[in-house]
Amino acid sequence: MKIESIDAYHVRMPLLEPWRTAYGSDEAIETILLRMREEGVEGWGESCPLARPCYSPEYAAGVFAVLRDCLIPQVIGVNIGSGDELQARLQIYKGNYFAKAALDTAWWDMHANALGKPLYQVLGGTRRTLDAGADFGIRHSVDELVEVVGEAVGSGAPRIKLKFAPGWDLTVVERLRRHFPDTIFHIDCNGAYGLSDQPMFQELDRFGLAMFEQPLGFDDLIDHASL
User: Fold this and answer.
1) Residues 9, 33: contact at Cβ < 8 Å?
2) Rounded to two decimals, what is the model's pTM?
3) What fold is seen in the domain 5-122?
4) Which among 50, 158, 202, 207 has most CB atoms closer than 10 A?
5) Which option is the CATH number for 134-226: 3.40.525.10, 3.30.1330.60, 3.40.1110.10, 3.20.20.120?
């Protein structure tokens, strides 16, 4: 498959309400969309690292620049026969996983369209549906959180993810578990804690959470293993 053209779009979608986490607040979602074409077939890809390098070291404007200046020129006019060949073309550039993911998803969508098959089948999947849970950021009050979580549980959400941050932690989880004793909960800390907070994480065990997401620094594998 010879890649003939790639259009890149840096887009911004305002949110209905701010998304508040341990690292701050987002009023809009910034994302990168790619349209890839070859021989009358096209595919779309997306990568969404957000507007600032808080969620990850990459951010939307930087991803757009890396794609424009480095990655897209590396594959334009090149015959790419597999996902592995695409990654091989990009491997001279270190890291930049969000930027590479935009090309990867666009190529796989284009490849599936060329075969005339849905992507999940091309990848070996068999299921046509997936269960999706609900995700809630830091709210103005715990009462407000209890209300919106109740709506999600009532609508059949199979699990609930909660943002977790200093000042919005144990008491919040305790309140929710009291209201929803059988609901599957897990928390996302966005790297806001350190090993000195281990007693708090041990105390969380009594609430039967499914998991703790990124309690410590995003690349701190050693301390995560200790925790």
Assistant:
1) yes
2) 0.84
3) Enolase-like; domain 1 (3.30.390)
4) 50
5) 3.20.20.120
